[in-house]
């Protein structure tokens, strides 16, 4: 495993972080037992992963809590989250604090390393900043969380308005954002200031559905070509991204996706979600592999650097 500084938090984190939500929820979505999911998390930890990303809404906090009993608490970093808006209604500050308290109970721990407001949109950002952050900073003083942040909501904010606005606000210590081979805008909208200010970054949507569900890349590419947003030849190929797969290049599109994100300047933790030990191991190998050749990353920027809103769907449940 390779480790890096998580912004200026002082946390030395693994460059690969296990996502405990998404379409897989540690295999819960395909009916894995709690013991099997705990074993999956422990395999990740045995392989050097020291950051686990969960959330109140993932219903995997109890799995994470059980898994981390295997190591001293300060050998592992746990991030969790609370929504501030649910079922069309803003939660009260007390409800968000109660969510944190509930997370601590589920995780069976005294503190979380990172607490984030979950899926913040342009509509909820001001309240996250002005109403909920001050309240959670009081909980931080009590020792319930070490660092405060938010996660953007790519399906609801393709233009990254929230990330752009957060550049001006000094309260955030950890930001989770969407970034992938065909959604590269955090390079302009976030990484310049997260690096300058020492805000820790977690990258999500690196593979998601577009690069992992059979046929999805081809159908999205056809739509983009029809809209004139990518050249037609990409839509005509059986595997539109096969130019990345060659000797000295990537072994597969998924391999390319994780390597691409991992070596982006400003990327601290690459989150990967899975319910499969086999995928866990191949994904770690990809995240730890060298950068893609420069000619390939240049090509990805030239072909897709202008795109907004591609591959940013809600999670597709992995049931098999
Ligand atoms: N707003 C938010 O706060 C937010 C939103 C999204 C995600 N997240 C976090 O980010 C984490 C990562 O989520 P993501 O959806 O962005 O994950 P991802 O790593 O981009 O996508 C993973 C999906 O692709 C499949 N996959 C993974 N490796 C594979 C492989 N080698 N071969 C074939 N299929 C593979 C997985 O299913 P298998 O089970 O089959 O491996 C999984 O469902 C989540 O778990 C969550 O912790 C947060």
Write a concise keyword list for the protein shown above:
320 residues; alpha/beta; TIM Barrel; 8-stranded parallel beta barrel; two-stranded antiparallel sheet; 12 strands; binds NADP nicotinamide-adenine-dinucleotide phosphate
Write the element-wise H/E pattern from the N-terminal end onward.
EEEHEHEEEHEHEHEHHEHHHEHH
Distance between the termini: 29 Å
Count of structural domains: 1
CATH superfamily: NADP-dependent oxidoreductase domain
CATH topology: TIM Barrel
Q: How confident is the prediction overall: mean pLDDT?
A: 97
The CATH class assignment is Alpha Beta
In oligomeric terms, what are we looking at?
Answer: single chain
- Supply Rg: 19 Å
The shape, in one word, is globular
What is the makeup of the main sheet?
A: 8 strands, parallel, barrel
Question: Based on the structure given, which CATH architecture is correct?
Answer: Alpha-Beta Barrel
Unreliable residue runs: none
Counted beta strands: 12
> Bound compounds, please?
NADP nicotinamide-adenine-dinucleotide phosphate
What percent of residues adopt helix (DSSP H or I)? 25-40%
Query: How are the strands of the biggest sheet laid out side by side?
Result: 3-4-5-8-9-10-11-12
């Amino acid at each position: 495993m390779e480790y890096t500084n998580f912004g200026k938090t002082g946390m030395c984190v693994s460059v690969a972080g296990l996502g405990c939500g998404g379409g897989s929820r540690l295999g819960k979505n395909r009916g894995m037992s709690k013991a099997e999911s705990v074993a999956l998390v422990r395999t990740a930890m045995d392989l050097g992963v020291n950051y686990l990303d969960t959330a109140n809404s993932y219903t995997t906090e109890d799995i994470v809590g059980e898994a981390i009993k295997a190591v001293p608490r300060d050998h592992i970093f746990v991030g969790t989250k609370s929504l501030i808006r649910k079922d069309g209604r803003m939660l009260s500050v007390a409800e968000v604090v109660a969510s944190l308290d509930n997370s601590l109970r589920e995780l069976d721990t005294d503190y979380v390393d990172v607490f984030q407001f979950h899926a913040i949109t342009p509509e909820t950002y001001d309240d996250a900043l002005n109403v909920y952050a001050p309240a959670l900073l009081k909980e931080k003083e009590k020792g319930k969380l070490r660092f405060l942040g938010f996660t953007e909501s790519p399906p609801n904010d393709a233009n990254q308005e929230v990330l752009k606005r957060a550049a001006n606000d000094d309260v955030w210590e950890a930001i989770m954002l969407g970034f992938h081979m065909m959604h590269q805008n955090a390079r302009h909208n976030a990484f310049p200031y997260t690096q300058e200010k020492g805000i820790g970054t977690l990258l999500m949507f690196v593979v998601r559905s577009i690069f992992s569900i059979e046929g999805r890349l081809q159908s999205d590419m056809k739509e983009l070509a029809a809209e004139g947003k990518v050249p037609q030849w990409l839509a005509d190929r059986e595997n539109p991204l096969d130019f990345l797969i060659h000797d000295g290049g990537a072994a597969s599109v998924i391999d390319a996706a994780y390597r691409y994100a991992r070596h982006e300047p400003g990327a601290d933790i690459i989150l990967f979600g899975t319910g499969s030990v086999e995928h866990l191991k191949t994904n770690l190998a990809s995240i730890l592999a060298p950068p893609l050749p420069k000619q390939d990353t240049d090509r990805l920027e030239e072909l897709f650097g202008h795109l907004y809103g591609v591959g940013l769907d809600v999670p597709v449940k992995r049931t098999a």
